[in-house]
UniProtKB/TrEMBL annotation:
Keyword Membrane (UniProt): no
Gene Ontology BP annotations: L-tryptophan biosynthetic process; tetrahydrofolate biosynthetic process
NCBIfam families named in the record: trpG_papA
Protein name: Glutamine amidotransferase domain-containing protein
Keyword field: Glutamine amidotransferase
GO MF term list: 4-amino-4-deoxychorismate synthase activity; anthranilate synthase activity
A GO CC term attached to the entry: cytosol
InterPro entries, A to Z: Anth_synth/Amidotransfase (IPR050472), Class_I_gatase-like (IPR029062), GATASE (IPR017926), TrpG/PapA_dom (IPR006221)
Domain (Glutamine amidotransferase): residue spans on this chain: 4-187
Entry-linked SUPFAM superfamilies: Class I glutamine amidotransferase-like
Length: 189
């Protein structure tokens, strides 16, 4: 399986790489958002949008990848990548009152049939590093909420018909003990 990890200039990118390399039979390539070659993306089976700083660019690389590959490739967004997917489908972001940088919170699985949560307890701890969140008020019908935090912020979603999902929390963080299993669940199909 060929996996593209789109690096959105984030220090956590290589933590994701190290987690994925623990699983066998995957050809993983990390490409910076600054160096992306859209013709080369065709060879990948799965795409991960990494975390990154600030908020997603409305007309940026992740939007262009979704335009071209949302219907044909498995896509997983983490933090900024998750927000980019949500925005692509029409969700709005808002600045949260209390910034969560290096905070661990309880996550409540709302849709246990989502494959990324297979074998994951209905309540688990996860590491958060964000100051923006996806609004429930403008949540698009194409996406299904899969998990929320203890303060009711949307923490995960999946597309209702396409192989696209995302998480606001960081599965690669040591503060997310179930993170390795979540990534494995996404990769195993």
């Amino acid at each position: 399986m060929n996996i593209l990890l789109l690096d959105n200039r984030d220090s956590f990118t290589y933590n994701i790489v190290n987690l994925i390399r623990k699983f066998n039979n995957h050809n993983l390539e990390v490409i910076s958002v600054d160096d992306i070659n859209f013709q080369k993306i065709a060879v990948f089976d799965k795409i991960i949008f990494s975390p990154g700083p600030e908020t997603p660019e409305p007309e940026g690389v992740m939007k262009n990848i979704l335009d071209k590959y949302a219907r044909s490739k498995s896509i997983f967004g983490i933090c900024l990548g998750y927000q980019a997917i949500a925005q692509y489908y029409g969700a709005k972001l808002y600045n949260i009152e209390t910034v969560c940088h290096g905070i661990q919170k309880y996550i409540y699985v709302k849709n246990p049939t989502d494959r990324i949560f297979s074998g994951i307890p209905p309540v688990f701890k996860a590491g958060l590093y964000h100051s923006w969140a996806v609004s429930s008020k403008s949540f698009p019908p194409e996406l299904r909420i899969s998990a929320r935090s203890s303060d009711n912020i949307i923490m995960a979603f999946s597309h209702v018909s396409l192989d696209i999902c995302g998480v606001q929390f960081h599965p690669e963080s040591y503060m997310t003990p179930s993170g390795k299993q979540i990534l494995y669940n996404w990769l195993k199909e």
